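Hi all, long-time lurker, first post. I run a small reading group and we've been trying to get comfortable going from sequence to structure in the token notation. Rather than ask abstract questions, I figured I'd post a concrete chain and ask someone more experienced to write out its structure so we can walk through it together at our next meeting. Sequence below, copied exactly:
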Amino acid sequence: MMKTALFLVAGLASAMFVGGAQATGAAGSRGQYLAQIMDCGGCHTPGVFLGKPDPARYLGGSEIGFKLPGLGVFYPPNLTSDETGLADWSEEDIIRAVRTGVRPDGRELAPAMPWHAYAALSDEDAAALAAYLKSLPPVQNQVPGPFGDAEEPTAPYMTVVMPQAPAAAVDTAGN
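-- Answer (accepted) --
Happy to help. Here is the structure in token form:
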């Protein structure tokens, strides 16, 4: 219940300030629209997980990470054109990462990134999203990590708790 409420707050908060980023032309407008409905700001904007999204740092990366048992802690990265974000990524690099879950350096994106769903983006939509992200004003914000499962994170994080399978029913009647 708390996790659902947290994501609901994050999604609503990100929707309230998505207009802060500049989009130019039809592709920019489409890219901005896609970033909004894909809820990029729901993870990648500072302050969202604290209920206080910072519109001046829209898509600048989160200070709160996700701990995935057995994998480590991952912080949603900066998606702006800053050197601490996507400055060195081409639009093709962004499209590949969004569709395949693989960064230009070969590292896989954290499992919390829903790239499997985004793999179905049309070529036009993928290009519009990439162009939009590259057009964002730079926000200098180097996010922490990632941290392996045995490493100690240096910033706050939320732990993803996997549900336990219900215990098998015990037949007390001897049937």
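A couple of things your group might point at:
The first strand starts at residue 65 and ends at 68.
The helical segments are 2-17, 25-37, 41-44, 91-100, 115-118, 123-135.
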